[in-house]
Amino acid sequence: MRLQDSVVLLTGATGGMGQAILAQLVATGASVTAVGRDTAALAELDKRYGASIVTIAADLGIPDDRRHLTQLMQHTTGFNLLINAAGVNDFALFEDQDDEQICDMINVNLTATLLMTKSLLPLLKKASESCVVVMGSTFGAIGYPGFASYCATKFALRGFSEALRRELADTRVGVLYLAPRATRTGMNSRAVEEMNAALGVRMDSPETVARCLITSLENDMSEVHLGYPERLFIRLNGLLPQLVSRSLRKQLSTIRQFANTPVEKP
Ligand SMILES: NC(=O)c1ccc[n+]([C@@H]2O[C@H](COP(=O)([O-])OP(=O)(O)OC[C@H]3O[C@@H](n4cnc5c(N)ncnc54)[C@H](OP(=O)(O)O)[C@@H]3O)[C@@H](O)[C@H]2O)c1
Asked: Which end of the chain, N or C, is less packed with Cβ atoms under 10 Å?
């Protein structure tokens, strides 16, 4: 799709990836409604981009806030690109996770993405070309210890994206499922970064993910997984999951050790 004249709703705009995506969208000439909860971060974005963007504070877990966003987009001429980039994660062994954190992950990552997409689809269908972007993860294709609830939401988003894309195949609305591998943003605690270093897991910059998103949209891609060897492991996991299980079994004690490290956010 042509991004130059796109009118975008970007959730997660205050986050690590969201800010990188926003910068690259603005550079292409797109006009963007940027959504987050952190009002100080939104004010920074306002200052940085001026009239190129509109910022909106909204909690996607709250139905009234989602309704408000939908109403706003109903009054935004030419809206044609929804980027669902908001998300939460909580690295912990499953049995140690609070029920509240599990519910929050499902609510923000999954429920809010589905409901925002559903309420905005009628508008997207009116555009001459439009797209829904769903931010997935390598953990939407590989079940990884320490991320069971997060994996549940991202596996579900991958299934949702595939089904919706097929359902919309005779419309002008595309669905792009973009699955980054580990990325250096505030989402990952120091424990996750140290675990990744110990296990040799490579981490991308948010700018790399944003560039990949822009290219994927420009080339009308439908499902994109970032990173090698992650792409290979995803294929292997589909064909011979027991091989991947064996390899992860060897990492389990390291993963447990970092999962039990007290979490401190930057
Ligand atoms: N970082 C990684 O390693 C990685 C890898 C693969 C996929 N992903 C996915 O990439 C996406 C972006 O993640 P990130 O790395 O940029 O994380 P991040 O830096 O922690 O940013 C998360 C974003 O989500 C927003 N958000 C969280 N809860 C919200 C809620 N209830 N209502 C509205 N907004 C909410 C945050 O807004 P406020 O800060 O304003 O509250 C923030 O803008 C997520 O879907 C994540 O699952 C991340």
From this structure: C
The greatest distance separating any two alpha carbons of the chain, rounded to the nearest whole angstrom, comes to 54
* Both tokens assigned to 223: 């499902």
The whole-model pTM stands at 0.97
Consecutive sets of 10 residues in the chain, 266 residues long: mean pLDDT of each? 96 98 97 98 97 96 98 97 97 96 98 98 98 98 98 98 98 98 96 96 97 98 96 96 96 95 57
How many structural domains does the chain have? Answer: 1
Nearest to 104 by CA among 194, 176, 37, 185: 37
- 236 assigned to some structural domain: yes
Query: What separation in Å is there between the alpha carbon of 89 and the centre of ligand 1?
Result: 8
Is residue 252, in this structure, part of any structural domain at all? yes
On whether residue 202 sits in a domain, the answer given is yes
Q: Ligand 1 pocket test: which of 185, 208, 209, 231 has the largest number of ligand atoms within 8 Å of its C-beta? A: 185
- Whether residue 265 is contained in a domain is answered as no
Q: How far is the CA of 109 from the centre of ligand 1 (A)?
A: 9
